[in-house]
Amino acid sequence: MLAKKFWPLFWTQFLGALNDNVMKNAMVVMITYKSLSVWGLDSASIVALSGGIFILPFFIFSMAAGQITDKHEKSQIVKLVKIWELLITIVASIGFFHHNVAWLLGALFMMGTHSAFFGPVKYSSLPQLVEKDQLVRATAYVEVGTVFAILLGTILGGFLIAMPSGELYAAAGINIFALMGIFTGWRVSQLPSAAKDLKISLNPIAPLKETIRLLNGKRDVLSAIIANSWFWLFGAAVLSVLPSYCKDFLRIDERGITAFLALWTIGTGVGAVLCDRLSRKIAYLGLVPIGAAGLSLFLFDLSRFTAQTQSGLITITQFLSTAEGFHQMADFFLMAVSGGLFVVPLYTAMQERCEGLYRSRVIAGNNVFNALFMVVAAVAIMVFHQTGISLPTTFFIISIANVLVCALIFFATPEYLASLTAKR
Known about the structure:
By secondary structure, the protein is mainly α.
C-alpha cells in the first residue's frame, strides 16, 4: 500500500487534469460544432492552434518552475498554483458565455502556465512521498489517475457543452473543480527544499543548458527525456486532428470525439497498469520498444481506412454497429495501450536515476522538451491542413516517423533493446 501522504498530491493532480480537460474539450467541441472562427482561421485550424497554445507555457516557464520547485518548499507552491487555477476558470467562464474564442485561447494559455508550474512538483515529490520500492507503483498510479481524469474531463466537457445552455454548465463545472483542487492542495504534506541556495534565472535557455550539463554522463536520462517528448509529439499530433477526423472523415456526431478520447485515456491507463505488473518495482525499459511498435502498427492500420460519404452525421452507436467502426476503435484503443507501455517506464527512469538535488529541474527540462515537441506537432498539423494533406496520409506519415525516430533513440541508447532481451 502507498503511504497516506501520497494521496493528497494524487487527488490534487487528478482534479487539475480533470479540470484541464473539461475546459479544453468543452472549448474544442464548441468551436468545432458551432464553426467559430478568429483571426481568419477556421475551426479546424483553431483546434490545432489550441494544442500549441496550451503547451507553449511549458516551453516558456518550465525551467523557472523547476528552479522554484527545487529552491522552495513544495506544498506552498501547490497552494499558489491551485489559487491561480481558480482565477483561470473565472476568465474561461467569460469566454464560454460570450463565445469569445480569443478569450478562451487566453484562458487556455493561462491553464498551460498552471500545469507548467505543477508538473515539476508532481514528479519530483514522489520520491519524497513513497519508498524507493514503491516508486514504479506511485508513478503508475499518477499516470492511471491522470488518464482517467482526462477521460472523465473529456466526457464531462463534451457532455456539458452539448446541453441546452451548455456554456453555463461548463463554466460552473470548471469553477467547482478548481475549488475542490484548492481543498486537496491544502492537505499536501510539507516537502522540504532540495536546493535552498539555488539562484533562479527567468531566462528559459540558460537553465535548460544547465540541466543538460547536469545530465552530462547520464545519457540514459537524456534519452528518456527525448523519447518521452517524442511520445507527446505523437499524441498531440494524433489528438489534434481527432475532431476533424470524427466529424469530416468518419461522419459521427460530437459524442464520437468524446468516445475516441475516452478510448485514448482508458488505453493509456491500461498500459500504465500493465507496466506496474511487468516492471517488478524498477523501471523496465524493455517495455519501451514494445510500446513503440504498437504505436506505429495500430496508427498505420488506421491510415488504411476510407472516408465515410453519408451526408448527415451518425451516432457513435451506429458507427460501432459496423465491422469497420469496431475495427477503427479497437486500433485506437490498442494504440493508446501501447502509449502507456511506452511512457511510464520513461517517467520512472527519470525519477530513479536523478539525484534529489536537481530532480525538479530535470523534470522541468523534460517538460520544456515536451512543449517544444508538441509545438512542432501543432505547427506540422496546421501545415498539413493548409496544404490539403488528407487525414489518412497524416496518420501514415506519423506512423512512419515514429518508426524512424524510435529506431534512432534505440540505436543511440542500446539499453532499451538490451532490456527487452535480458533475463529478469
